[in-house]
Amino acid sequence: MTGSTRHLCVLVVEDETLIRWSIAETLAQKGHRVVEASDARGAVRALSSEPEQIDVVLLDYRLPDSDDLGLLKNVRRLSPESAVVMMTAFGTPEVTKDALDLGAYRVLNKPFDIHGIEPLLQEAHDSRSGASTRPH
Amino acid sequence: MTVGTRAFFLVGPEKSALLELAIRGSRTDDATAKMLAVSYVQARSVDILDPKDRAAQVLRALIDSAVDGIIVIDAQGRIETFNPAAERLFGHRQEEVVGRNVTMLMPSPYREEHDRYLSRYLETGHAKIIGIGREVTGLRRDGTTFPLHLSVGEMIVGSERKFTGIVHDLTERAKLIEQLRGSEERWRSVIESAVDGIVVIDSNGRIEAFNQAAERLFGYQVSELLGRNVNVLMPSPYHEEHDGYLARYLATGEAKIIGTGREVMGKRRDGTTFPLRLSVGEMSIGGERKFTGILHDLTARVRMEEQLREQASLVRLGEMAAVIAHEVKNPLAGIRGAVQVIGGRLPADSREAAVTGEIISRIDTLNGLIQDLLLFARPPQPKPTLVDVSSLISTTVDLLIRDTALSEIDIQVEGASAPVVADPELLKIVFQNLIVNGAQAMRGKGRIRVSIGASDVACEVRFIDAGPGIPPDIRQKIFTPFFTTKARGTGLGLPTARRLVEAHGGTIHVECPPAGGTTVTIRLPVDRVTASTRADGPVLERGSIEP
To answer: What is the CATH number of domain B66-173?
Structure first.
């Protein structure tokens, strides 16, 4: 585990309930606040309405109402301060490269080790806050 | 009768008078010619011949009116008689040749030899031409030669031996033969230069002609096939059925293939078969029915079709794999995550916690299978860089020997090559698959040699194991996806290796030497600039053409 271990606010955008549940459980256990969305619309709504700043967005590539990197662009626009980690069940090298170019911190291939999530999100957040002027 | 001709008629009450009719006059004015002829007849009128002169006159007339040249010589070869036809043939007037040696009518070497022939005949009676006839060459007054048929008879007049030559002009016939020969040559060259095979058979199916293209197609020499049944060129069941087809067609006119064409299989001399398009036409030569087959090789087309089919099916498989990957990996991720969370809440040393660990390892195996399928069905586009093959192999080997399944395998790497332009990640997968295959063939024990060699254009890597080899009946299938002889295996290792090597413009071959074991050879194109740098020092423009 690197950097600070402060409690984060994480938006998990994932339509597969078991994934969403296991991530939320794991993060909550570590004391992080988790906001859940099951589609792109829910993600946009959460980013626009959430009173607290969302530190990290964990974003599935394919959602019922989104099948490209449009949602990533939207997230970056709506919440430029948030770090984004993408998840995909079939990430081609091209998709990965495009996502990184659009500012995603990492593209995570499914299935993954659930215990690796929390340190990765900390790392992603640290990378943003290091570059950001926003006070903690 | 035309101008310039003469005719003789026996006229009178007892046909005892000879009328000579000659037509003289301007060749351009036929009317004048006729006028002249009439006046000539009036002038000569009818000669009433003395009966004793009559025979001589008739003979004279016959000789003069003969179409063939008639030349009479004496025993010394001197010309005595030279009829008007001979005059026309040789271009000499009778008065120019009479008394001169007949050799003046012959070109060399006959001219020089004739006197000797004649004297020898007179001495020995050994005839070369007398009493028979043969084709010889005549020499005209203007120095040109012409072919003629000469028949020579001998006669005794008084006590003198004389020889009569009848000379028949063969110029027209020779011209005709020449034309026929030219025409035959033309046809022969058309047939021989044809790209398609051409085979002519008689009504019994015996081969009468077989062109060069057909020789190339079937691997036979024409001399081996002439007279043989055309069914030697056919595999079963056509081989057995062809005589029946032919007989039925000849009997009933019911054609299966004649007049049309279709795709059939041909059998080469070495027993291999190949697809071809056959069109058959029928002809009649001198009343005999014959059949001409035109054979167009379809090997390349069929191979291309197969490749296209294979590519199309790989594309479909790739699309399918992509869908399956997503639809399987997404729930796998959910199951894995949830099991991990639940497992984390169980007492660490409980049986249940151990089971969750097992579930996770099964999920990972399943995921590995999906990964393998994806790699085969949808290999990533290579990202080429300069790769040093021997160090890449060493790295791969270092990774592999950590695997407990390969702990008793001794891997020897030898040789070196110029760098290749390749994707090191993909090549690593190829090397890994081949080494693991070899290790499994040897049941995890023994030595695998990896030998690297290079030519100007290719880097060659051979993976040589000392396993049992591959049985011949399955050797053809080893690159077929999902074909496996292992109890646990996806059958994707070699097909994936092949796809990845081919994506690099390389080739892969498997051999099982009689001595045992299996050798897999990979050839990869080398980077030419680097290769020549290494070989020759500074890079120079090489006169080679990029493939």
So the answer is: 3.30.450.20
